[in-house]
Design brief:
By secondary structure, the protein is α+β, with helices and mostly antiparallel strands. The chain folds into 2 domains: about 90 residues; about 230 residues, Bira Bifunctional Protein, Domain 2 (BirA Bifunctional Protein, domain 2). Helix content is about 40%, strand content about 20%. β6 and β7 form a beta hairpin. α1 runs parallel beside α4 and α2 runs antiparallel to α4. The longest helix has about 40 residues. The structure holds phenylalanine. Phenylalanine binds next to β8 and β9.
């Protein structure tokens, strides 16, 4: 039995010292020290020993057990330390490797242009107004003096939500004139930018969704001269002091008289080129003196108050500001294009 115990001790110690991972070491602990292990198996034979031999063997068995337990513990500590070192090497972070640069976006060129425009108007005492894109036809047409039968109300031009043409995607920002008159105290000085919708095919100058900026002033004694002065000031701040403009007569149902404002082509200086389609001028906005009937429908006395309004195409303004040739570039969100601004 002594030999058996010594053999177990020798073999077990060798195996334990050779164990190279925690699972292997645990298997050895079970194999030698477990309830069904080799040491227990030997101890079960103690009953057959003489009374003198039993305590001697008992002592020896205990010392073997103690040795093996100590060896398992020490090896376990060694393996844990090795595992830690391995992880420290494997998971080490090289703080000297250059970092990944986070690509931060920037404002879309059209909104750069819009913000410039807002700044100019705010500086002149205007309030910026926001309003719904889903609008009542009453506000988009009727209250703007475009009655039943007006061509712009046609189904082929306008996105309606219902069969009786009462709710629609606004086709212009001009219903913001109505909303301002309904909600604000006189005098009124507002600018209202936003999206508008028309049934247009997409090409270099058209899109079914685009942006307009509405402007309106109502006060006592407001004249066409104020309209021209204000718009000329704005355009020169945007495009430079030497910008040349012209006002052409036009027609809108809600202004009288009405006009369109052109800027001289920045490419050819008015001679005519592909950018201005040979015209020498680029149309920028529609405007006019608010029709007395529009004021009346909003409960404003046109013999006391007068006003003017304009509606500007924001894409067109940004295209001129940044010399962009094709409207589609503004909506396509191609970073190669957008990152240039
Ligand atoms: N709403 C008109 C359009 O979309 C522009 C406009 C606005 C004209 C205000 C006059 C006054 O064409």
């Amino acid at each position: 039995m002594k030999q058996q115990l010594e053999a177990i001790r020798a073999a077990a110690l060798e195996a334990i010292l050779a164990a190279d991972d925690a699972e292997g070491l645990d298997a050895l602990r079970v194999k030698y020290l477990g309830k069904k292990g080799e040491l227990t198996a030997v101890l079960k034979q103690m009953g057959g020993l003489s009374a003198e031999e039993r305590p001697v063997m008992g002592q020896l068995a205990n010392s073997v057990r103690a040795d093996l337990e100590k060896a398992v513990e020490e090896q376990s500590a060694i393996l844990a330390e090795k595992a830690l070192q391995r992880r420290l090497v494997e998971e080490a972070v090289d703080v000297t490797i250059p970092g990944k640069k986070a690509e931060v976006g920037h404002k879309h060129p059209m909104y750069v242009a819009l913000d410039e425009l807002k700044e100019i108007f705010i500086g002149m005492g205007f309030t910026i107004l926001d309003g719904p894109e889903v609008e009542l036809a009453v506000n988009n047409f009727d209250r703007l003096n475009a009655e039943e039968g007006h061509p712009s109300r046609d189904w082929s031009d306008t996105f309606y939500f219902d069969t009786d043409s009462r709710v629609m995607l606004r086709s212009q920002t001009s219903p913001m004139q109505v909303r301002a008159m309904d909600t604000m105290e006189l005098p009124i000085r507002i600018v209202a930018p936003g999206r508008v919708y028309r049934k247009d095919e997409v090409d270099a100058t058209h899109s079914p969704m685009f942006h307009q900026v509405e402007g309106m002033v109502i006060d006592k004694g407001v004249t066409m001269a104020d309209l021209k002065g204000t718009l000329n000031t704005v355009v020169r701040k945007l495009y430079g002091e030497n910008t040349v403009t012209r006002f052409r007569p036009h027609h809108f149902p809600f202004t009288e008289p009405s006009c369109e404002m052109d800027v001289q082509c920045h490419k050819c200086g008015g001679v005519g080129c592909p950018t201005c389609k040979g015209e020498g001028w680029i149309e920028l906005l529609g405007a006019g003196m608010i029709h007395p009937r529009v004021l009346e429908m909003s409960g404003i006395d046109p013999t006391v108050y007068t006003g003017w309004a304009f509606g500007m195409g924001l894409e067109r303004m940004a295209m001129r500001r940044f010399k962009i040739a094709d409207l589609r570039l503004i909506f396509e969100n191609d970073v190669r294009f957008l990152s240039q601004f």
